[in-house]
Amino acid sequence: MVHLWLRAETKIKEHRATLTPGVCETLIKKDSSTLLLIIGFQITVEQSKQRIFEEAEYEKQVFLRYRVLTICFLYRAGCVIVPSETWKTAPSDAYIVGLKELPENDDSPLTHTHIFFAHCYKNQAGWENILRRFIRGNGILLDLEFLNDKKGRRVAAFGYQAGFAGAAIGLDVWTQQKLHPTQSYPSIDPYPNETKLIDHIKQRIEKARQGSDYPRIMIMGALGRCGTGAADFAIKVGLPESHIIKWDIAETKKGGPFKEILEAEIFINCIYLNQKIPPFITKETLDGPRKLSVIVDVSCDTTNPNNPIPIYTINTTFDNPTVRVETKNKLPLDVISIDHLPTLLPRESSEAFCNDLLPSLLELPNRKTSRVWVDAEKLFKEKSSSLK
């Protein structure tokens, strides 16, 4: 039986979950046959004060029906709830499932098989440390970012939700600059649903516009899931199509910097960075004339040496969403570089992601032969071998 152990996220204001109660129910019911009872997955869920889903939603009992000869039986099962951060003592065969990085200030060996976004395969800051923990503990990393289908496309991603949320915050920061130019943009709390978020930003835009034109937004990587999400949000809050500038590979072939970025009020970077490219903008280009006052770096390759937006050096957070870039131009320039934007809509983004991940989770009983998991383990071993 496959045992999934959902750990509590320790990243501040991370409200999403890799496993939703609905998908857990599906996994538990998976192998209930008509001849004999074969329980599907065993699922353990750590308590969490910030997860959008209540523990009672996971603990909900489901009934499994099975038949022996002419007698029908019902078996009751559900997730087991355990204290937060107890995954280190989980059974050795349990998969430790999470979303964002492991707890900070911990360099202990990792002995389990972990499934989460480790952010350590593209030379991000600290990548060696996380891989060495797995090497020392003989553990395995199955990185969610690199679970791909036969065509090389990710089986599950938060890209659309990241672009959607990034556009929302970017537009809201623009309204803040107009409505309260002397005040910093405040901390952000998650929204219960998409409708509430759209209504709030719509109202803010109308107050900031005061009858004047809408801001123009430029989306880099507009044809991908992330860029599509950014464009969709802009349309839902009323921006005309003419004010949404969509660039992708064809428009960037000539190489940056691109003066066109400076002509939009808001720039949203949604590219997937997998190689060194010329910068899109530089500090020098920002000193001259520009309309640009907000940058949303959804891609958030802050610590990547190939970051195409080399004008800031820190990740922002939901508590401190923006960082001001000092330029010779009097117009302010605020950067949003939050690396978990989809938690702005934690329930909807978790459900969309987990539903996409479900077919791959159902393959875990055959992990040694299932292509998506075989490839993920192969990649981990290739990356780890460079440190040995």
Structural features:
alpha/beta, 6-stranded parallel sheet, 6-stranded mixed sheet, 15% strand, globular
Structure description:
It contains ten helices and 14 strands. With 388 residues, the protein is α/β, with parallel strands linked by helices. The strands form three sheets. It has a six-stranded parallel beta sheet with strand order 5-2-1-6-7-8, sandwiched between helices. The chain has a six-stranded mixed beta sheet with strand order 10-9-11-12-14-13. β11 (266-269), α8 (283-287) and β12 (294-297) form a beta-alpha-beta unit. It is globular, with a radius of gyration of 23 Å.
Write a concise synopsis of the structure shown.
Helices cover 29% and strands 15% of the residues. It has 388 residues and is α/β, with parallel strands linked by helices.
Write the topology of this structure.
Elements: E1 3-6, H1 21-29, E2 42-46, H2 55-59, E3 62-68, E4 71-77, E5 80-82, E6 95-97, E7 113-116, H3 127-137, E8 140-143, H4 159-179, H5 194-209, E9 217-220, H6 225-236, E10 244-247, H7 249-252, E11 266-269, H8 283-287, E12 294-297, E13 323-324, E14 334-336, H9 346-361, H10 371-385
Parallel strand pairs: 1-2, 1-6, 2-5, 6-7, 7-8, 9-10, 9-11, 11-12, 12-14
Antiparallel strand pairs: 3-4, 13-14
Helix pairs in contact: 4-5, 4-6
